[in-house]
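User: Please fill in residues for this 364-position structure.
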């Protein structure tokens, strides 16, 4: 549990003992890869150290309440504990609230695309009224100001030339593939990088399914190979003894997006290292020492293919090595995508803001 700080409950907390323990239990599940037995063991140790419970309510009572409230179940064969779909959704919602809940929604950004039709949201920027504009988009404060300036304040007069209209933002339908590096380096050097990556994936999944149901999110993990996982699998995702086959991840992402009908497609890639592996026939070609030109060329070729297909790759590099950042810059230039060199703490904010920005187009 390195890097996690637990303290006593704050005075004045109105939550029930069950609700207080549930918050900690859900947090622990993210570090135990969805293993409730290990999470309950950690919770019991924390209770012994920090006195989380009292004589009236103990960990045993909490376990019974977890089962009664549909968060925990026992297998009939062995009696082992498993979390339920309700717990999986609760973890996703918790991740969404933690990562995105405190971010202020912004309406700023570049709007290079102009498109006819009704928009989804008012934009702070205004323009003169044109015949056919929606009445609900009128900026009444600006229109009144124009009226007083143009006609004086002695008698109220408003003409069409006085009216101002808010620009409208149109939220485009988007298909996104989120690629998560699960190579061994994601837990090397005493730093847990996979848990923040999982947390971001869970938050993004919950955001899209609840707020943008017409969007699609597919999740791809890549190590020696790449494969697709479901949203419900995210709490259980673990790092393996893998190298980094970025090519396999990108190829799978391309295949998925070819089948999606949405006009806007993008790939978010969370990684902490360079590509070190290729699959050639039935064998793996591996080289962890520096950047191998054979692996690099295949990766850059794919970046160029995705550019021609108009699929930008937004890379989130959670490592500070200069030569790794040099690889990301090269890859980004070939793909005409974007790159962020993010800390683990800022990863969720970067992804959220970029997802929102990529969805927004100007409607006149």
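Assistant: Residues filled in for all 364 positions:
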């Amino acid at each position: 549990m390195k890097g996690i700080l637990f303290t006593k409950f704050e005075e004045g907390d109105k939550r029930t003992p069950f609700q207080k323990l549930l918050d900690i239990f859900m947090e622990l599940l993210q570090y135990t890869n969805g293993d409730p037995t290990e999470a309950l063991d950690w919770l019991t140790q924390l209770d012994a150290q920090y006195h989380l419970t009292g004589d009236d309510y103990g960990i045993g009572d909490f376990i019974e309440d977890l089962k009664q409230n549909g968060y925990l179940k026992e297998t009939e064969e062995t009696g082992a504990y498993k979390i339920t779909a309700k717990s999986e959704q609760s973890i996703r919602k918790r991740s969404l609230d933690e990562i995105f809940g405190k971010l202020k929604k912004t309406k700023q950004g570049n709007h290079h695309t102009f498109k006819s039709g009704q928009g989804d949201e008012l934009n702070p920027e205004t323009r003169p009224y044109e015949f056919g504009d929606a009445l609900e988009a009128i900026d009444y404060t600006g229109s009144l100001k124009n009226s007083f300036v143009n006609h004086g304040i002695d008698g109220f007069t408003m003409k069409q030339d006085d009216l101002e209209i808010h620009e409208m933002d149109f939220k485009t339908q988007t298909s996104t593939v989120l690629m998560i590096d699960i190579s061994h380096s994601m837990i090397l050097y005493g730093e847990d990088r996979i848990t923040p990556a999982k947390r971001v994936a869970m938050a993004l999944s919950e955001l899209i399914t609840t707020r943008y149901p017409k969007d699609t999110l597919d999740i791809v993990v890549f190590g020696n190979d790449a494969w697709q996982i479901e949203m419900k699998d995210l709490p259980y995702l673990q790092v393996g003894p893998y190298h980094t086959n970025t090519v396999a991840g990108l190829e799978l992402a391309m295949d998925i997006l070819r089948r999606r009908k949405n006009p806007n497609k993008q790939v978010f890639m969370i990684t902490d290292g360079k590509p070190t592996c290729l699959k050639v026939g039935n064998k793996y070609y591996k080289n962890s020492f520096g950047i191998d030109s054979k692996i690099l060329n295949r990766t850059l070729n794919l970046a160029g293919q995705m550019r021609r297909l108009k699929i930008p790759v937004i890379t989130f590099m959670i490592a500070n090595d200069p030569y790794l950042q040099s690889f990301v810059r090269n890859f980004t230039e070939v793909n005409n995508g974007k790159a962020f060199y993010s800390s683990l703490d800022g990863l969720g904010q970067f992804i959220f803001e970029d997802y929102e920005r990529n969805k927004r187009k100007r409607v006149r």
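For context: The longest strand covers residues 121-128.
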